[in-house]
Each structure stands twice: as C-alpha cells, then as structure tokens.
Amino acid sequence: MEYDYGRMSHDLRQIRTDYDDIPESARETIETLLDLLEYFATAREYFKTLYFAREFAALSKHLLYVAIPVIVLLAFLLLHLDDLPDTHLLVLSVHTVGYAPFALLAAYVGRVTTVSQRTGAAGQFVLDHSADGPSLDD
Predict the structure, then answer these.
(1) Can you give the three-state secondary structure of the chain, one letter per residue?
(2) 33-51 pLDDT, tens per residue?
(3) Is the N end or the C end of the chain the one with fewer CB atoms within 10 Å?
C-alpha cells in the first residue's frame, strides 16, 4: 500500500515527454504503467473507504455495547451512593468503568488514523511527513 503514486506517475510522464525517440512499444508500456498506477490508486482509495465504513459501523455497535451498561451501572451507583462504602478502590473502579467508552472510541480513532496516514492520498500533491520520506526540496 505504500507506493509513491505521484512520483511514479510524474516520472513516467516526464520520460514520455522528454524522449521523443523512444520506440512505440516503450510508449505503450508507459501508458500501460500509468493506467495500472491509476488502478492501484483507485483500489487503495476504495479500500480506505470500505475500511472506514466498516470500522465506524463496528464502532457504533461496540459503543452501544459498552456505553449502555456503563450508563446503567453509573446511574445505579449514583442512586445508591449513600449505601456504598467510601473507598478509594470503589472510586477508582467507577472512574475506570466511566472512561471505558472513551477508551474504545480512542482505540478505533487511532486505528482509522493509522490506516489513513499509511495509505496516503492518490494524486500528485501528496506530502510525506515521515522522517525518511522526501522533503519539499527534492
């Protein structure tokens, strides 16, 4: 999934325009490669769209599974607060349970952003912010 679509297509187009004396078979090969690069870019974007849709659908379902019991449990604890012992372990447990939906949300958002960053966007103007990627001076 990590190929530099913009650089590859730019280089192929540059070869096509710079060298007028290349054989017709090489020109056809360049056109075929450009078409394949576009297919790969389209497939990558389709994968991202499908992945995001599935992940957010799963997130919605899992948030319901986690949030509803948390709300019920916290409402029960608030209603019966006077009957419960006042211990640090109880307070820590209530806070941990209360943050469970947020932890689930953070996990899903982290996964989705990782996939989004690693696949990049198709096109000529993709900036690579990784440490080993090309700089703007290249």
Answers:
(1) CCCCHHHHHHHHHHHHHHCCCCCHHHHHHHHHHHHHHHHHHHHHHHHHHHHHHHHHHHHHHHHHHHHHHHHHHHHHHHHCCCCCCCCHHHHHHHHHHHCHHHHHHHHHHHHHHHHHHHHCCCCCCCCCCCCCCCCCCC
(2) 988 888 888 888 888 888 8
(3) C
